Amino acid sequence: MYKEKIEAYIDAHRQEMIEDICSLCRxxxxxxxxxxxxxxxxxxxxxxxxxxxIAEGYEFHINNYDNYVGTVDLNNGxxxxxxxAHLDVVPAGEGWTVTEPFAPVxxxxxxxxxGTADDKGPAVAALYAMRAVKExxxxxTKNCRLILxxxxxxxxxxxxxxxxxxxxAPMTFSPDGAFPVVNIEKGGLAGHFTREFEASTELPRLLSxxxxxxxxxxxxxxxAVTEGLDLSDxxxxxxxxxxxxxxxxxxxxxxxxxxxTAVGKGAHASTPEEGVNALTGLLVLLNKxxxxxxxxxxxxxxxxxxxxxxxxxxxxxxxxxSDDLSGSLTLAFSLLxxxxxxxxxxxxxxxxxxxxxxxxxxxAKKKMADKGFTMTNxxxxxxHHVNGDSDFVKTLLNAYERYxxxxxxxQSMGGGTYVHExxxxxxxxxxMPGTDNKMHGADEFAVIDELLTAAKIFxxxxxxxxx
Length: 467
Fold this sequence. Notes:
Structural class: alpha+beta
Helix content: 25-40%
Number of helices: 11
Low-confidence stretches: none
Largest sheet: 8 strands, antiparallel
Number of strands: 26
Mean pLDDT: 96
Radius of gyration: 24 Å
Shape: elongated
Distance between the termini: 12 Å
């Protein structure tokens, strides 16, 4: 019921919806230093202010929770359905080719720019779903609330602040995943470790390594500085190692020093197999160089044994596992800083339902300790699972099938969304199966037709659940 009206409304507002998405994506809403009244910095504040202004312009009632979270209410009825989206983004990074990160552009049916897919585009799609329901006068008596957060990428302290004041709705979905329905979000272990060693003075030697921008991003670039190596030999070896790793090594001389930049392919840490890890690729090259024996290089070699290049399942750490419902454990070596007498690093592991502290945390800690590393973690994030046979999930799947003609079924993912801690929350949209929108990478994009379809599905779901 109402499918034709909903489709006609969303199609008629296509360009307006794109313009609203672009107005948000022009704002750099990476997390920035705190300012008075701006808990996550100026960029997220501006994005929230803009989004609430857009919603208010469409005559929705809005509310601002201390610039942590903003809300948009469909009506004055009892809260029955929450839609959780976020306006913050991961750092822009390098390697953009279609457009600059915060200069969104439409090309070949896609909208390019940081945040177009994660999560400003889907947030606006949800807003337009609410517009369709309201402006078409579709019969709903219960309230649907769109909740717009500003710290999802860096810990979700924003949504914790919101739920300190507000109860959960009976049902919640986040358009921050993929269709059909993600009813399982894997648990997580952000394995932080350190190691100390005596600084090396004998040449040739490694001076430093710097790699990674965020724990949940596979590094697309990694950097090292060496001293005392023959530049010609270094370049020759790098060309050979490129064939092994798929990583490009760019080498620049600076007196007796060499600056090495390893260039791989960034990816979201929940899907590390889609990237080429520049960090582990850099370690492979460094491990083959003729450095003088030292504790620092011993540590580098040990790291490469624990997390080999191409190991995205935790096999080196002894935590490889899988189950039928949630799939396989994944692992990304995402952060590393090596100095003359100290190193610090973090790996990001997404853990299936069968994982626990006994078979993951304790095993990884022991493996690290056996190699001389101190892993500081004392706990891990549990997985999230909502019954796929519930009326709520079935309603979502029915709407998805009706508007796409595709089979609707539940699935799991390694990425975590706002609903991870909610009793009855799932991820629902906004990308379609098989679409790789380069989330968290360069040239992030959203397929415009998919956003339009998502808005139509969301509108139908609001009617079905809030009537």
